[in-house]
Amino acid sequence: MTSRSLLEGLNPEQLAAVTLPKQAALILAGAGSGKTRVLTTRIAWLLQTGQVSPQGILAVTFTNKAAKEMLTRISAMLPINTRGMWIGTFHGICNRLLRAHHREAGLPEAFQIMDSQDQLSLIKRLLKALNIDDEKYPAKQLQHFINGNKEAGLRAAQVVPYDDFTKRLVELYAAYEEQCQREGAVDFAELLLRCFELLTRNAMLRDHYRERFQHILVDEFQDTNKLQYLWLKLIAGDQAAIFAVGDDDQSIYAFRGAQVGNMFDFERDYQVKNVIKLEQNYRSFGNILDAANTLIQHNGTRLGKNLWTSAGSGQPLRVYEGSTDLDEAAFLVEEVKQLHREGLALQNMAILYRSNAQSRVIEHQLFSTGVPYRVYGGLRFFERQEIKHALAYLRLIANNDDDGALLRVINFPTRGIGARTIESIQSNARLSRASLWQAACSGGGSGRSGAAVAQFVNLIEDMRRRSEGLTLPEQVDMMLDQSGLRAFYHSEKDGQDRLDNLNELINAAMNYLAEADDRSLTGFLAHASLEAGDHQADAGADALQLMTVHSAKGLEFDAVFITGLEEGLFPHENASLDPAGLEEERRLMYVAITRARQKLYLTLSQSRMLHGQTRYNVGSRFLIEIPANLLHWLNKAQPAPKMGGFAPAGNSSARPTRSAQAEHGFHIGQSVLHAKFGVGVIIDCEGSGGGAHVQVNFGGSHGIKWLTLRSVDMLTASS
Ligand SMILES: Nc1ncnc2c1ncn2[C@@H]1O[C@H](COP(=O)(O)OP(=O)(O)OP(=O)(O)O)[C@@H](O)[C@H]1O
Ligand SMILES: [Mg+2]
């Protein structure tokens, strides 16, 4: 590709940005205006015009996926070996640097990176070893304290305590530093801080990298935190030129310390002369853009900019209101299949949700209809850590001799059974050719850990006894309490999402009962392993994309479905009380809308199973903030159900109000079987006596049907 063809098609502002002389630059522009394209093209242009070699480039992106994407785009433009280029996330780049200079950084060659869960376990072990009262100094709080200080660039020795309590926290922070050093373990914040300190301290290395990296390019600059910004300044020195691109309207990590203010600091620190603005959007049709523009105008704190497109207005945004979350999921899958039949590849469509737990119902629907899908930036429901722990308890209840399950939970949540004790149980089991459970029953050693093992055995036995006579969902609920899993995640700072997932497991059990022949715990467990199996589409295969709005940042799709648009869900209930939180939710919605190229769907549901209970939600305020003329409601909104008049599945307080329900003893939400359409859920009814009709949602290809009551069989006992 010649340099002319490389630059072809860029608009004047983009062209100016791509070909800026070597100087500090800030590109401030809205979604889809070509920021990432400008950044990538600039790298290619710098290389092609010989202004820099691949080794001289350092590019920071926000996710590994984005980094890969950038490499692919550059390779497509230029026939060069991209290996020498450093393109990655802050964590990835710091890891690379520390691996190369582990000795100088004071780390063992094979240092281990801890995720936040590992970090917390280490803190707990430490508190225990030091005999610290964890009521007074909760592990989560200490973790927060440590990470917050590290992200502000402060070591224990540099933190100035202001009372006795913080004095103690600082001491514990110091002890934590020592422990990590002994174990050769590095947490996420440490990667950055350690790297920062290495370059501050070691002038030779610093000069080496300053000489090497002539051009430093940063995508999604609005989401950098303070230490990341300092790190960039340090490595840039006054030789390198920093080229930063960002969008204040897409700042969605303030809750993790990201500072939009870095953009102002950057402008000041580097005396950026002209901030380049890009306003033409190349991604989306006009209606989609208008929706995004109008929505974000409801935020007070903005730098202010507007997007326009020459693409025409396209179709209106389609809105679907389901009666239940199952109904919403059935609609999504039907629509995806329809678009696919019309020629859209699955990988060009994305289903977005605000919280991870929402994916389960959708995944289930996809799984049952055989639509290949892939979940990004997170695990699929049954693969999530907390779900695996919960399933392990259930597996042990169903079968004591399940060694894998036992190992997973014997000390989770921690109950004082150490690695040594577990090893001795394992060797006893080997010697007597017994299962770990049997070995544990015949004594887990002496002293405290022996007693803890006995307690664990009792716990499992007790849960099994309690299970008798309980329905499957009740068994799951009981296990979540008795095992301590619920309490454990309840005490975690970031545990809400995991708690939601655990509660979602109860819903999974309910749905399973509605559909399965084998209603036993074992049957449910088999179903869970099957759904966890290899149904995630193979890498490279065409598959529908599922992800949270956070992980969709920077990506684009022909068709986008934004789901769960209900107050409390999106905007999230944790955020909707405080104005700053609400503005961040609105920026998230702005990110979500602007992912769509051609078609945008907004879906919601009148009722939804959450935390094991049916919730009746009202539509999200974001639906009101989008001009009504841009929206096309697909199904005439049904009147919002009144409490009590609409009895959901599994809700024992079902109070049918209509005469047919009283007469025939069924209720809305009840599962039914139809000879031709299979299993469905009653969502409405009409008439009485022999003329009674029910409206049943069969999901999948059959959808919603009105049928005579006589033609269906009730599956669950009515209340
Ligand atoms: N001058 C152009 N001509 C045609 N297409 C363009 C042009 N500039 C950008 N695009 C296309 O527009 C889409 C959006 O570009 P890009 O992803 O770079 O935007 P962005 O500003 O980084 O968006 P986001 O804020 O969501 O990260 C891409 O498909 C890109 O290829
Ligand atoms: Mg981008």
From TrEMBL:
What domain of life does the UniProt record list for this protein's source? Bacteria
**What Pfam families does this protein map onto?**
PcrA_UvrD_tudor (PF21196), UvrD-helicase (PF00580), UvrD_C (PF13361)
UvrD-like helicase ATP-binding domain: residues covered? 8-285
Family annotation (Gene3D superfamilies) = 1.10.10.160, P-loop containing nucleotide triphosphate hydrolases, PCRA, domain 4
Q: Which top-level enzyme class is recorded in the Swiss-Prot or TrEMBL entry?
A: isomerase
What Enzyme Commission number(s) apply to this enzyme?
A: 5.6.2.4
Alphabetical keyword list: ATP-binding, DNA-binding, Helicase, Hydrolase, Isomerase, Nucleotide-binding
Task: Tell me the Gene Ontology biological-process terms attached to this UniProt entry.
Answer: recombinational repair
Note the InterPro entries from the entry. Answer: DExx_box_DNA_helicase_dom_sf (IPR013986), DNA_helicase_UvrD-like_C (IPR014017), DNA_helicase_UvrD/REP (IPR000212), P-loop_NTPase (IPR027417), UvrD-like_ATP-bd (IPR014016)
UniProt GO molecular function: 3'-5' DNA helicase activity; ATP binding; DNA binding; hydrolase activity
Statement: the UniProt record of this protein carries the keyword Nucleus: no
Query: Catalytic activity, per the record?
Result: ATP + H2O = ADP + phosphate + H(+); Couples ATP hydrolysis with the unwinding of duplex DNA by translocating in the 3'-5' direction
What's a GO cellular component annotated to this UniProt protein? cytosol
Residues bound to ATP are: A29, G30, A31, G32, S33, G34, K35, T36
Q: Does the keyword Ribonucleoprotein apply?
A: no
Per UniProt, residues of the UvrD-like helicase C-terminal domain are 286-554
Say which family it is in: Belongs to the helicase family. UvrD subfamily.
Q: What is the protein name for this chain?
A: DNA 3'-5' helicase
